[in-house]
# Entry
Amino acid sequence: MRLFGLAAQQGRWFLLLLGTIILLCLGTVYSWSIFRTPLETLLNIGATESLLPYTFVLLFYSALMPITGFYIDRIGTRRVTMIGGGLVGIGYILSSFATNISMLILTYGVLVGTGVGITYGVPMVIAARWFPDKKGLAVGLTIIGFGLSPVLTAPLAKGLIDAYGVKQTLLILGIAFTMIILWISTMLKVPPTGWKPRGWQMDQSNKVRSQPHKSRLLQTSSFYGLWICYMIGTLVGLSAIGISSPVAEEIIKLDPTLAASSVSLFALFNGLSRPLFGWLTDRFQPRYVAVASYVLILIATILMINAQEGQVITYLIAFCIFWFSLGGWLALAPTATLALFSAENYPQNYGIVFTAYGIGALLGTLSAGRIRDLFGSYTYAFYPMVLLAVIGIIVAITLLKRDPIVIDNTENSAPSP
# Structure
């Protein structure tokens, strides 16, 4: 079998690159802050209103991703990508014609969010199936596109806005994303049943007794352990991300321009952690990698609880860790899903696990600001993070391990802890 004119063993790496490019396009939603100020002026809206399209993007992205997992195998990766990519492009294009915030919520928040949710899981499924020997690394390398997207697309969007205005920028991005994603979708494919890399053999000692019904996923303690751990990692990470600049200005007294520019550094750590955590989860039991993530969070929270005015290095180290940890969970969770449950049902299984991200995202984007309003300082937002990290460590150690009732009934089973 050949891919892109090469033996499948070599050609499969190009599928990772294509998946990364798709996720670079989708990850532009994380650059929404670049659009907010010009849209506030254009539509005569406040800061709270300008945040609503982004909130709806997260909501619909989180809601559609689990549902899509049940249809990828029925519809096919190419069609799913075409549908999702088309919605993303149409959403951007229609947003360029929005004359009020309600229309923008519908076109950007609902349509783009739905498109992202439909498309997001496809590159990961392709990576996992073509790389049964390197699942964590392959998934991590693919989703690095989503994490690093703001590093590339935020300056691009800013340059386009300065040159052409915000409406034209949305139109240009919409057309570009439609063309790129639809073109790439024609080249996507999953391996035939039974395919495996030349010379690779699954470790037979990793096979365990199981049964064939994917519904048993919800009857395993390992699922609830992974779900809780993923939710905590997302909640803490997105809480910290949401207050990165305000904390710098309020606690550290950092210049607002410098505080904003530091986000690019944090986004770099967020992206680079994904292949690293995927690689680690390939080699170590998921619960150990999860515990390491929570230990990093504890270090970051302790640094910020004790941070004082002018301690710029402390702030940068702490928030690099927060962003690094969140990016790590976005590779750890899908790789752990492959390691703990049947690889055959991965799209459905990870779709269910991904609901933890949705809950964590909702709570994370709301909690830190609310704590600041109640107690008068962002410092108090870090105390609950300490408690959550400790809970995460306990849950990971006690529950995040393979349940003996789950089986891997395929040749592509991932290593068990």
